[in-house]
Amino acid sequence: MAIRPSDIYAQESKPGEYEVKAVFLYNFVKFVEWPDDKDTRTGRIVNICILGEDPFGNAFDFIQDETIDNRKLAVKRVRTHHHIDDCQVLFISSSEKENITHILRTVKGSNILTVGDTDGFAQKGVIINFYIEQNKVRFEINLDSLRRSGLSVSSKVMHLAKIIQG
Amino acid sequence: MNLFQHISLKQKLTLVIMLITGIALFFSSALLIPYEMNTFQRSLINNLQVQAEILGSNSTAAITFKDGKTAEEILSALKSSPNIVAAVMYSKDGSVFARYQRNDVKGDFSGPGPQEDSHYLGYDHLDLFHSITFEGKKIGTLFIRSDVRELYMRLMWFAGAIFVIMVLSLLLSLLLSSKMQEAITTPVLDLINVMNTISRDKDYSLRASVHSHDEIGTLSDGFNDMLSQIQSRDSELERHRKSLERMVAERTDDLNRSNRQLQEELATRKRAEEALSLEKEQLAVTLRSIADGVITSDTDGKVVLMNSVAEILTGWTLKEAEGKPVSDVFIVMHERNREACEAPVKEVIKSGELVECKDYVILTDRQGKERIISASVAPMSGKDEHIIGAVIAFQDMSVKKQMEEDILRAQKLESIGVLAGGLAHDFNNLLTAILGNVSLAKLLVSPEDKISQRLTAAENASLRARDLTLQLLTFSKGGAPIRKATSMGALIRDSVSFASSGSNVSCEFAIPDDLWVVDIDEGQMSQVIHNLIINAEQAMPGGGTITVSCRNTTVSQDDGLPLKNGNYILISISDQGQGISPKYLPKIFDPYFTTKETGRGLGLAMVYSIIRNHEGHITLESQIGVGTTFKIYLPASGSIISGDNIAEKQLHAARGKILVMDDEAIVRESMLEILNFAGYEVECAKEGTEAIEAYVKAKASDKPFDLVIMDLTIPGGMGGKEAIERLKKIDPEIKAIVSSGYSNDPVMANFRAYGFEGAVSKPYKVAEIVDTLYKVTQRPDDQD
Q1: Which of B65, B70, B93 lies at the smallest CB-CB distance from A27?
Q2: pTM of the full predicted structure?
Q3: Which percentage of chain A shows pLDDT scores above 70?
Q4: Disruptive mutation site among A4, A9, A153 for chain B (greatest number of B CBs within 10 Å)
């Protein structure tokens, strides 16, 4: 089932957890600026990569027709953290809990927005981590990791997030 | 502007200045306020728009990530603007995403729902809609409501400021004007002062001081000039005045003289007017009291005056008729041919001679009612013999005409009656002989004989002839009725039912029980009713209803009936027949006048005669196609009804000696035969003297007369009336019967009062005379 972001609010039946998370991932692209944006601004594809077991199913189907600032979006499943060079956004599945330290070491200094949905990921250095509060999908941001990544996130989004230091 | 007329020049100036200042200030503020309010309103909207812009932009992430809580936190920044009442953020689908409301707003404020970017200024609030866009897409709508207290507050402040400025400005202008006006008012007041002094002291040598060289200065100069002129004119006037006084004294004398003359003239005129109004009053009273109608006209033939009788007869009031042509009000036509005619007003005015209408004319009043009148037109002349109009005098002749007609008819019928009576009397004597002889002849032959049948036929014919002469006699003088007090009710019912039996008409009666008793001859009155009923029946060959009604009535002179005043009963007999043509009405009671093929024309003549002999009156009303009503008036009697004694009629075997007195030999002979036949012994006498002699002679003998039969009138000899008076003196016990062809003679009707025991009308049948003789000779007082 394809769900468009514009439909989400209109949907009477509550969308599934991962459908919401998929839309959030898409929205993050809008609020995040990559430091060297020459790749992304020239009309190239923004890759949203999923590392580990893919929990999203068809939730990303809507993305095919969407563009952000004339950039097309694409979703890629990556087997290992060695294949993440062309990823702008990296979703680290909870299946990679054991390898998180390795993965983060690989990502370090590569302008990739790391996103997770596993308890404790933010403390470990993932930039944005989803959590559930009162049946709602919310997210926390690790400010140090963000600063290190060289990305800038709109203060408006910062406002919505739980801030994690260190 | 009346206000300005009564205030001083000083006040006027102040008022004008104040008014101008006030109006100028008022209009400038009046223009300023809306401009200021508009500007402020715009800045209010701008502020709100800026606020909405900031809030919207800050909320994009919250909306994108559906974080309503954060969005509300952002909206709560509005707390710093106390004039914001509420704000609502709608998501793209129109649902409320976040809201803010001031502490004093109760409940959850949801706003009017999302709309396009716009703003509305309401009575007490300002609404603003603002779209929230992100990345070029609309993601929601922000609605903000602000109150406009500040706007009104500012308005109040502004109005207050203007008021203060106006008060201060007006005070200032009052101060300034009261100082500056002195330049104008001082010279004017000075001028007024001088003027007042002059008019008070009459000192024309005073002069006004000149303060300035403006218009007021010119005024003062002119005033001074005028004073100089007045001064010089005054002295001239004084000269003229003295000469004028002389002239006035002379004129006054003249005036007094003519005034006296005028007063004398006035007194004379007043006396003349009084005399005239008295004359007028007398004329009005005269006119009112005249029993005739009076209409006066002017020379143009227009109505001037009418008295009340004229008003009644014409149906016009004086007010309505005044000024109308006489011919419009007094509408007349000839009685003979109903041709319209006119009162000869114009001719009378021209000729100056009185015109009296020879015949009666018919006056049609305003309601169309017609009256027969007699009229005359006379000229009216003023003091100088000059004709000033005409007077029409007229009289209602309807009643008089009716009476005249009645009298005429009575006279005519009376003269016919004299002729018929004389004829009938002679005829009667002849019939007596014929009938007597025929009756006797019948006795001489056997009833089976053919001669007897012929004789019976002759006798019947003679009897019919006798009836005829009787009718003629009844008509001619009526035959004095043999009266007794009778109730008409029973008589009418009997007569009517007898007359109408076997015919196809029905009779209705309306006869009250308390109907007065009348003194009548029952036989004659039955004949009257009988005739009238027959008449009514014949008027209705197709059948119908005859209504007979009676009532008591009192006749007075005003009723216009040829009757003495007194109580009467009125009998009305109405049919529903074809009516009687008006041209036959005057002749209807004439003998031998008939419209029927079979009638002899004696019925109504007899009726008329009988009623007249009863001192009554008969009249009729008839309308073609509706019917005819006969009305009979009979005088009421004072007496009461006596019991009726009906004589039994039998042929009796008789005995006795009778003296017959009659001038006619033929009568004497037949009487002799008849009475002999009846068994009487008979002697005859030609007249009274002879009869008395015979009676005295027989009384002295042993065979006196038992009865005397005397003719009432003996030409050239003593009649029955005188003879019985003398015989009564000789023998008070004498029994006598009067016989006459004049059955209408009072002696016949009241025979007892003259000393007779009975009366027989000539001619008579044997049975009739024998019956009377028997009754008289068998009277109870004779049976001892």
Answers
A1: B65
A2: 0.37
A3: 86
A4: A9
Whether the CB of B93 is below 8 Å from some CB of chain A: the reply is: yes
Taking CA atoms, what residue in B is nearest to A157?
A: B61
Nearest-by-Cβ selection for B93 from A10, A69, A154: A10
Contact B529, B611 (CB under 8 A): no
Q: Which residues of B touch A156 (CB under 8 A)?
A: 58, 60-62
Question: For B315-331, how does the pLDDT look when each residue is reduced to its tens digit (9 = 90+)?
Answer: 888 888 888 888 888 88
CA distance B770 to B655: 11
Among the partner residues B61, B66, B93, nearest to A156 by beta-carbon distance:
B61
The pLDDT tens digits for B276-302 are: 898 888 887 888 788 888 998 888 888
Q: Please name the residue that has the structure tokens 């002349």.
A: B381
Tokens at residue B256, please?
């007094």
Mutate to test the interface with B, among A160, A162, A163 (most CBs of B within 10 A): A160
**CA gap B167, B153 in Å, rounded:** 21
| Buried residues in B496-514 as b, exposed as e (16+ CB within 10 A) | beebbeebebebeeebeee
> Two tokens at B283?
């004329």
CA–CA separation, B134 vs B61, rounded Å? 9
Query: pLDDT confidence of B570, banded at 50, 70, 90?
Result: very high
CB B77 within 8 A of CB B56: no
Cα separation of A16 and B361, whole Å?
129
C-alpha distance from residue B223 to each of B190, B196, B212 (Å): 12, 13, 14
B61 touches chain A (CB under 8 A): yes
DSSP state of B757: S
Query: What is chain A's length?
Result: 166
pLDDT number for residue B780: 47
Residues in Cβ contact with B90 at an 8 Å cutoff, skipping those fewer than 6 apart: B96, B97, B111, B113, B114, B140, B141, B142, B143
**Distance of CA A9 to CAs A55, B129, B283, Å?**
22, 21, 120
The predicted complex's ipTM stands at 0.77
Amino acid at B216: I
Q: What span, in angstroms and rounded, lies between the C-alpha atoms of B151 and B573?
A: 110
How far apart, in whole angstroms, are the C-alpha atoms of residue B475 and residue B495?
20
